[in-house]
Task: inverse folding
């Protein structure tokens, strides 16, 4: 994803965001509230058309390709706020996630999700809206897994979760990457994100301002926090 520019009418929300993700790795994108993280992810996943810039996936230019087509190519967005279907059961949510998967893969896909997140198996007949925030996030991951993705885009998976749950949810994201899936994770929570990341990009006010490995970012935490803090203050 190179030099993305995305606008809402006259509002230039994103003007120069670049990041990359690799199979089997967690690519972390850090940015304060309003930095343009959601806008960027939604543009990559085909929900917004970028004004300019390029989205490449698996060697192909998919800039501006619609979301439902992007999913079929193996890229799926786990949206901010999880957006699970609260009145439906856990298993019904997973079935919806598998709508684009090949015939016959639904049952094995669901079994695989329950293996990855056993709590979802235990609660398969529960209404999704009754799950805890962390369980709902795992369900959002599981629903995305049902499309058999090569790349998962995750928009602030730790948002609103208790610290112990943050740890579990982000470890779940790491475990999915360890199976060979590429994970592109957007977070405000730098501490938690850095524990599971391989590479780091920092976005400030709609622009990529820093890129490096997670170990570089961990060694240079003060700089990363300064960039995030400065953005949070919302300077010009
Ligand atoms: N639907 C929208 N219409 C107009 N402006 C928006 C809309 N959504 C987000 N923005 C603006 O775009 C900027 C980036 O927002 P967003 O991508 O949601 O940031 P983040 O996810 O990093 O918090 C912010 O200034 C925000 O106010
Ligand atoms: Mg956001």
Result:
């Amino acid at each position: 994803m190179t030099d993305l520019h995305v606008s809402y009418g006259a509002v230039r929300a994103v003007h120069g965001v670049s990041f990359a993700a690799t199979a089997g790795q967690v690519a972390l994108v850090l940015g304060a509230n309003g930095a343009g993280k959601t806008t960027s992810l939604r543009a990559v996943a085909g929900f917004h058309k970028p004004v300019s810039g390029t989205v490449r996936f698996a060697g192909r230019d998919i800039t501006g390709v619609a979301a439902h087509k992007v999913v079929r190519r193996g890229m799926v967005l786990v949206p901010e706020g999880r957006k699970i279907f609260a009145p439906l059961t856990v298993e019904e949510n997973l079935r919806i996630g598998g709508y684009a998967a090949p015939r016959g893969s639904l049952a094995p896909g669901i079994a695989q999700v329950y293996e990855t997140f056993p709590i979802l198996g235990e609660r398969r007949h529960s209404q999704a809206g009754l799950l805890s925030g962390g369980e709902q996030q795992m369900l959002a991951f599981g629903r995305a897994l049902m499309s058999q993705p090569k790349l998962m885009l995750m928009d602030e998976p730790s948002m609103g979760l208790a610290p112990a749950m943050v740890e579990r949810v982000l470890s779940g994201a790491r475990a999915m990457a360890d199976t060979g899936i590429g994970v592109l994770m957007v977070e405000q929570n730098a501490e938690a994100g850095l524990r599971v990341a391989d590479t780091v990009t920092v976005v400030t006010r709609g622009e990529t301002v820093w890129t490096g490995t997670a170990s570089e970012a961990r060694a240079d935490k003060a700089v990363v926090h300064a960039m995030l803090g400065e953005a949070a203050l919302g300077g010009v």
About this structure: The CA atoms of residues 27 and 184 lie 5 Å apart. Residues 2-80+149-233 form a domain with the Rossmann fold fold (CATH 3.40.50.300).
